[in-house]
Amino acid sequence: MSDTSKFTVIDRRKIKADEEQENQQTPAAPPEVASAPASEPVAPSAGPRLVVNEHRSAAPTALAEDEQPQLPTAQESREQKAAYDVSAQRIEDMVRAQNPAMGAQPPVTFEHLVQQFYVSAMIQMGAGTQEGQRPRVDILGARTTIDLLAVLAEKTKGNLSESEQNTLETVLFDVRMAFLELTSMISLQGMQPPPPPPPGKR
């Protein structure tokens, strides 16, 4: 029998101790990464620190989104209004040069705003459809437009002239009545039984 050993005994306890020592030294690095200045690029690290860093970096963005936009100053508003008036007048002059018969456009009033909502609501409820064509109804859009008119009535209460108040109330009454009639028709059509099949196709 030879005195030379054919196998080597390895002390696993020593390897395990070395691995534990390396693991204990590894966590020491993240505090330096976390305390690094924001201007320096930080290498991505594994583990929960990435989540913490993402959370911290996302916080300022969320706060920025919650901030209200800075209001323009009175001087800025006056200058913008003057520039707008000049630009609008230039466009009107160009259009009138192409159409000499067209007179000057009247100033926009509160009645124009209410009338715009009225026309939009009626078109959404199918008004103005050409003869022979099936009306295209946007009932949800019409409801939104009517609700916007109601918001306008609520927010301007006490600040309108008698003529403006009468126009708004009349238009709101008319579009609500048209909405009720249209929704009643839609409900009746939905409740009606389907037509019977033609003879011989039962």
Detailed description of the structure:
By secondary structure, the protein is an all-alpha fold. It has a domain at 108-128 and 135-192. The protein is built from 7 helices and no strands. The longest helix has 30 residues, at 162-191. Mean pLDDT is 76; it is low at 28-40 and 44-59.
| Share of helix, binned | 55-70%
The number of helical runs is 7
Number of strands: 0
**N/C terminus separation:** 102 Å
Low-confidence stretches: 28-40, 44-59
**Structure class:** mainly alpha
Query: What average pLDDT do the residues reach?
Result: 76
Main pleated-sheet profile: none
Q: What is the 3D form?
A: extended
Beta-strand percent range: under 5%
Radius of gyration: 37 Å
What is the element string, with H for helices and E for strands? HHHHHHH
Distinctive features:
mainly alpha, 202 residues
Architecture blueprint of SSEs:
Layout: H1 12-25, H2 30-34, H3 49-66, H4 74-98, H5 110-124, H6 139-155, H7 162-191
Helix pairs in contact: 5-6, 5-7, 6-7
Would you summarize the structure shown here?
By secondary structure, the protein is an all-alpha fold. It is about 60% helix and about 0% strand.
